[in-house]
Amino acid sequence: MKMVVAIIKPFKLDDVRDALQEVGVTGITVSEVKGFGRQKGHTELYRGAEYVVDFLPKVKIEVAVTDDRVDAVVEAITKGANTGRIGDGKIFVLGLEQVVRIRTGEVDSDAL
Amino acid sequence: MKVLFRCLAALMFLATTGAYADTPTLNSGDTAWMLTATALVLFMTIPGLALFYGGLVRSKNVLSVLMQCFAITALVTVLWTLYGYSMSFSTTGMAAGVTNLNSFVGAFDKAMFAGMARDALVLGVPESVFATFQLTFAIITVALIVGSIAERMRFGALLLFAGLWVTVVYFPMAHMVWSGAGGFMFDMGVLDFAGGTVVHINAGVAALVACLVLGKRKGYPTTAMPPHNLTYTVIGAAMLWVGWFGFNAGSAVAANGSAGMAMLVTQIATAAAALSWMAAEWILHRKPSVLGVVSGAVAGLVAITPASGTCGPGGALVIGLIAGAACFLAASKLKRALGYDDSLDVFGVHAVGGIVGAILTGVFAASSMGGAGLAEGVSIGSQVWIQTKSVLITIVYSGVLTFVLLKLVGIVVPLRANADDETEGLDLVLHNERGYNF
To answer: Which residues of B touch A45 (CB under 8 A)?
Structure first.
């Protein structure tokens, strides 16, 4: 099992969600996050006071999947989140040791 | 020329002490307008100024600013009742051309509105309406100051300071300019229709002194302190614009041509200043900002205030254009260069805008410049000199007394929140509340 973590542009969230649904993903977790990468921040100017905003708002999505579906999920996120411009984000694939569905006590692939 | 002079005297706010006695009948049209204007001017402070300022601070301090504006409104009202109206507008002991103690401050014979009958009239309107109208000016003047010390002053210290300041600085200042013949600055021939010196330079200078005495906010200017909600600020500025018609056109204390012209020139100068600040910012900072355009409008409102009873539409246009650019430079360049932390630019907008307006009032009051005309034998140059003197007197009077009062208050209670409290935010630390519980 793998945990797929992706940092994407906030306005691409709906596209990513649709793409993931198409490949049969039944659940994801979404958080609003801030960070920086190669995409430059921006400056804000209030009555001459200039503030450099380094941390840009992004959306983090987390998807737990069985090993055989990792490639399809990564491809779906890539397709959904791509604009071709700097700042599109990154996908991280992590190993996942155990999954438990709280309601029933099912574990691992049964719980996904 | 005699007629002209009489016109001018009528245009000047609260023309003469004689006017008190010479208006035996109530004018219902004037009264209706003054009731409305009074409500409009109160609307400028709450919620107008409160929202304008509230949006400009960080979210952890929004309530502290709203609280300051609201509590000042209440405090000044009570002090006005106790003795403020009397100190400002009692004419006892005053005579034209005579300089005595009552040229600087009113006697206490009208304390608690003593002797004010229900039907008492001032300039054809009930004295009760006149007194309430004038009260709203005292309120906004004190409330303007809080912008410079926002996000760091303790509430108790602020209330104490506000009470002392309105007593020692505002009431005498209003008396000197507006109480009529025998008033120190009135006798100088100062033209200040709606409060360029009394309200704006007075508050702006006090604000500068206050922010210097209190010191900078922790982290200023290296830490980012962007406005937390510019939509509030735009709403507040728009309310100020609307409410200002009560301020300027109401200062005619009549529903007449003077009030109408005051309304027109107020609109023109405000629009010109909004465009002027926006253009200056567009050129120097590459982008026109919303904060810039609304700040420009406020700068225009401030600058036209002293001139609104005497200048014409052309003069208003020029005053607005100059004020917008001058206040932009003061708020964005001068403040940076000198390094003081006037948090919400009270000095840059109200003192600078007030000074520009007060001096240009002397120019555009002349009939040759499209104004209502200067007093007989007074040239533009000599009127500008009178205006400049009034500006200097206001700066010194307000500056010195504000400094002394803050030092006195500082002996009794700490002026500033401590560093930890400032980081935590004044809303939680001083008021046990948060502006937003999402």
So the answer is: 285, 287, 289
Candidates A32, A34, A46, A51, partner chain B, best to mutate (most B CBs within 10 A): A46
φ/ψ of A91, rounded to 5, equals -120, 130
Angle at CA of residue B183, ends B178 and B186, nearest 5°: 60
DSSP state of B216: P
**Mean per-residue pLDDT, B201-215:** 97
Q: What is the pLDDT of residue B22?
A: 52
Q: ∠ CA(A4), CA(A10), CA(A16), 5° rounding? A: 50
Confidence at residue B24, expressed as pLDDT on a 0 to 100 scale: 78
Cα–Cα distance, B314 to B433 (Å, whole number): 49
Percent of residues in chain A assigned helix, strand, coil, to nearest 5: 30, 40, 35
Are B289 and A46 an interchain contact pair (Cβ–Cβ within 8 Å)?
yes
The residue in chain A having the minimum alpha-carbon distance to the alpha carbon of residue B345 is A47
The three-state secondary structure class of B115 is: coil
Sign of the dihedral defined by the CA atoms of residues A93, A99, A101, A107, in that order:
positive
Are B208 and B47 in contact, with CB atoms under 8 Å apart?
A: no
- Chain center to CA of B354: 9
Q: In a 10 Å sphere around its CB, with 0-12 CB exposed, 13-18 middle and 19+ buried, how is residue B382 labelled?
A: middle
Tokens representing B267 are: 């609109």
Which two tokens mark A31? Answer: 């958080």
**What DSSP letter does each residue of B125-138 carry, written as one string?**
EEHHHHHHHHHHHH
The vertex-B136 CA angle with B134 and B140, nearest 5°, equals 125
DSSP 8-state class, residue B338: H
| Beta-carbon contacts below 8 Å between A and B | 29
Of B224, B226, B331, the CB nearest to A48: B331
Q: Is B285 exposed, middle or buried (0-12, 13-18, 19+ CB in 10 A)?
A: middle
CB atoms B335 and A51 under 8 Å? no
**pLDDT recorded at residue B17:** 38
Interface predicted TM-score (ipTM) of this complex, two decimals: 0.79
User: What's the pLDDT tens digit per position in B150-190?
Assistant: 999 999 999 999 999 999 999 999 999 999 999 999 999 99
Helix axes B313-329, B257-285, angle to 10 degrees: 40
- Which residues does B367 contact at the CB level (< 8 Å), separation at least 6? B4, B373, B374
Query: A53 to chain B: which residues are within 8 Å by CB?
Result: 224
Predicted TM-score of the model (pTM): 0.89
d(CA B342, CA B216): 8
Task: Compare all CA atoms of chain A with the CA of B285 and give the residue at the minimum distance.
Answer: A48
